[in-house]
């Protein structure tokens, strides 16, 4: 790169609030200079409303390819998360590295088109269908990286440690053998995965994840914490009541309680699914500065429960959103669902808004800031020196007629959808233009072939 591009925004949501007639100078992927109250000059890329594009902080890319296949009631009288998980295990049995690359590229493209600039991939599908490692231990990690090379999305790759089938240390079940590693093989895998990222752009981040307190032993968790100090550290925390019961029975403490007692949780951590926490746990965890990794669409789809966002924000907590199972990839809907879950529970309106900031503003700014923290990504707001992670809302769209500033965000999130997102830059890479990814057709064609080969297997 090296050359500077200038984006002229009619309005922009900057780190210190809204500004009009903004010229954003982007160089080497970063916002180099911000001028406000300036007309566009020849050569500027003219945009409507420019907002920070968040990182999608939690994804299992391969699950996108089974979206829509698990919405029937099976023989089990109580169809729930655990029956869904069985179906997911059956589905992933057939996936090859080529499939995973094609699916990941499609998922990343959809994320960009929805207004996300980055993808935090919580990556646990490591091995061949029989559980044997590929010749290259990090084969599947390389495929995620290859997808990011195709799409240009900002990637934070989190290789996941998955050791056991439950808290009692039972062996992995048949559907889990592709995930499994002992600590020493995982350390080698994570190091190999980190090396594969070297050929990606400078905003790429390598981190670590422990799957959950069910799937990782206390020693495994310790190893994850020690592995790549200072990088993002993620874990599924408390998604399902069944999971809380299992951890309580085995460790004598609920997952959040146990974690807070046994690890120094701080801003490096992102805890995924904080749906099953008491008010006291919510307050205590919020104060650690860890990010609550929320996946409202998936949590709704899987019937997980409702995160206490009102209490979390009142306690100064940081949050971001992710698309997790990728049953649907939509930034506006993820934010809307988060807000609506609070309204439905409390029979309230504007549950997360403040006197100064509307619902949409609190949701977007929160997701941008927390998403960047969880991704280990120097962005999260439009500010000089930050990566240029930018999305444009199309002011020509009917849903934005006569709407400005906070009300424009609210109209996008509550009245509109991702069709209002016209352009997206990830670390200065202009990947979505006029509503479509620059390689939309080729990425979609390859994904279609993969889906045809897989068939409707469930
Ligand atoms: Zn997950």
Mean pLDDT: 96
The unique ligands bound to this protein are: zinc ion
Largest pleated sheet: 9 strands, parallel
Identify the quaternary structure here: single chain
Secondary-structure-based class equals alpha/beta
The CATH class designation of the largest domain is Alpha Beta
Considering DSSP H and I runs of 4 or more, what fraction of the residues is helical? 25-40%
How many distinct beta strands? 17
Structure notes:
The protein is of the alpha/beta class and 458 residues long. It is built from 14 helices and 17 strands. It has helices spanning 81-92, 97-114, 139-151, 183-196, 218-227, 241-251, 255-262, 279-286, 296-301, 309-314, 331-346, 359-375, 405-415, 440-454; strands at residues 4-14, 17-27, 30-35, 45-52, 55-59, 118-123, 154-161, 205-206, 208-210, 233-238, 269-274, 291-294, 318-321, 390-393, 421-426, 429-433, 436-437. A hairpin with a 2-residue loop joins strand 1 and strand 2. The radius of gyration is 21 Å and the shape is globular. It starts with a strand and ends with a helix. The mean pLDDT is 96. It binds zinc ion. Zinc ion is lined by residues 58, 60, 122, 236, 272, 324.
């Amino acid at each position: 790169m090296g050359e500077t591009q200038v984006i002229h925004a009619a309005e922009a949501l900057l780190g210190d609030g809204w500004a009009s007639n903004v010229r954003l100078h982007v160089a080497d992927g970063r916002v180099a200079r911000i001028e406000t109250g300036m007309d566009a000059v020849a050569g500027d890329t003219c945009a409507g409303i420019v907002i920070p594009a968040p990182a999608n902080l939690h994804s299992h890319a391969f699950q996108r390819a089974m979206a829509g296949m698990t919405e029937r009631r099976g023989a089990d009288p109580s169809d729930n998360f655990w029956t869904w998980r069985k179906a997911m295990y059956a589905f992933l049995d057939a996936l090859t590295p080529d499939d995973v690359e094609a699916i990941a590229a499609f998922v990343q493209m959809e994320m960009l088109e929805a207004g996300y600039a980055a993808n935090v991939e919580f990556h646990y599908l490591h091995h061949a269908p029989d559980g044997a490692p590929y010749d290259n231990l990090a084969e599947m990690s390389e495929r995620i990286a290859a997808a990011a090379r195709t799409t240009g999305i900002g990637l934070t790759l989190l290789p996941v440690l998955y050791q056991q089938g439950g808290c009692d240390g039972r062996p992995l079940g048949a559907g889990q053998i592709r995930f499994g590693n002992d600590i020493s093989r995982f350390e080698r895998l994570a190091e190999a995965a980190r090396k594969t990222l070297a050929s990606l752009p400078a905003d790429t981040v390598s981190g670590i994840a422990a799957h959950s307190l069910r799937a990782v032993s206390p020693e495994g968790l310790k190893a994850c914490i020690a592995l790549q100090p200072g990088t993002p550290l993620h874990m599924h925390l408390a998604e399902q009541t069944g999971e809380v019961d299992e951890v309580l029975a085995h460790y004598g403490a609920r997952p959040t309680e146990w974690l807070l007692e046994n690890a120094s949780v701080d801003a490096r951590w992102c805890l995924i699914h904080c749906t099953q926490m008491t008010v006291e746990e919510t307050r205590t965890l919020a104060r650690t500065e860890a990010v609550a990794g929320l996946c409202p669409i998936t949590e709704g789809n899987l019937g997980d429960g409702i995160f206490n966002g009102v209490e979390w924000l009142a306690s100064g907590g940081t949050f971001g959103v992710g698309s997790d199972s990728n049953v649907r990839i939509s930034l506006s809907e993820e934010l809307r669902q988060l807000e609506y879950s609070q309204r439905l529970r409390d029979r309230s309106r504007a549950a997360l808004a403040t006197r100064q900031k509307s619902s949409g503003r609190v949701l977007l700014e929160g997701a941008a800031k927390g998403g960047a923290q969880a991704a280990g990504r120097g962005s999260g707001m439009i500010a000089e020196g930050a990566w240029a992670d930018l999305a444009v809302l199309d002011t020509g769209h009917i849903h934005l007629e006569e709407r400005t500033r906070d009300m424009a965000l609210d109209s996008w999130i509550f009245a509109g959808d991702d069709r209002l997102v016209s352009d997206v830059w990830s670390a200065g890479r202009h990947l979505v233009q006029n509503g479509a990814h620059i390689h939309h057709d080729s990425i979609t064609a390859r994904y279609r072939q993969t889906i045809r080969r897989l068939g409707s297997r469930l």
